[in-house]
Design a protein that fits this description.
The protein is an alpha+beta fold and about 350 residues long. The chain folds into three domains: about 5-70, no CATH class; about 75-180; about 190-335, Alpha-Beta Plaits. It has helices at about 5-20, 30-40, 45-55, 60-70, 75-125, 130-180, 190-205, 215-225, 225-245, 265-280, 315-330, and strands spanning about 205-215, 250-255, 255-265, 285-290, 295, 300-305, 335. A five-stranded mixed β-sheet has the order 2-3-1-6-7, with helices on both faces. Strands 4-5 form a two-stranded antiparallel sheet. Helix 1 (about 5-20) packs across helix 2 (about 30-40) and helix 5 packs antiparallel against helix 6.
Length: about 350
Amino acid sequence: MNNDNFVKSTETLKETVPLMIKHKVPTTPANYALWYTYVTQQSPRLNQAIDGEIAEQGQCSPTACDKLYQQHIASKTVKDMAQLKQSLTAMMQELSHSMTDTLSETESFQHNLNKGFNQLELAEKEGLSLEETMGLVRNLVKESRNIQLSAGAFRTQLNSAQQEIAALRAALHESQKEANEDALTGILNRRAFDRDMESFQLKKQPYSLIMLDIDRFKRFNDDFGHQMGDQVIKAVARRLKESCREQMQAYRFGGEEFALVLPNRSLASARQHAETLRRNIEKIAVMDRKKGERVNSITASFGLAEQQPQEPVIDVIRRADEFLNQAKKLGRNRVLPVN
């Protein structure tokens, strides 16, 4: 990098950091890359997307930054995945070749073993000398050692491959944890919820929280199977996502429990939204393909909480969850608090 480029990069960085501070964007390497690109205006589509996010949501949330980074910056990820695929293919080919070689050597050993036994039987009949007989035995021992070495080498390779696969599985698990979207429903997951709530707390932005839980969900799994349970979860998630407007965001909180965040909304507004959503969930019908019947007895219970000034996120969640539990105890399929 020449001096002019260095000075230009430094000036760009001086613009990038205050902009991130202004929008309270977490200072991660990915966010640095995202906002550095924004300042340099290298990608008009990225600038348009960020400007639109700020205009619509009043902020660029951590999950929004991650999404924009994946869409506009992280092309390297595609290359890394291609490299991973190539490495896995090479490893499997190597194992396949080793297995083929080992099987071939095993067949050769079997052939030589049969040949040796035949010669020993012939020796017994024809009365070969002790030296000739010992020569046959030595050949059998040698062949046995060769196949042991071949099998040992293959076993070592399998162990090494097993370790590589375990490492890849761990890396995949970590990457899945890093993802913001729930794999089953496609809406945001608990990790995204925690990060966004932390962002609300940092920016001191008021909000109301809706927690909801599918009623008698275990029954769907017990009576119709887990696939039906998954279909119910996905159907409810779609209704939540469809209901989101004006900066609202839906999350799968865990299992059959969901969360809906309503920025700058009062408890009364959140209750109205939750009541509409409750009625819409009542209308859901899911087809049981095994029996050819439609399951239309889906309901959910709701608990609400409006964040009080300076109130920690954990207290808001706890309060909403307490109302949710009360709603279930009072008969389910209802929204609490009433007022």
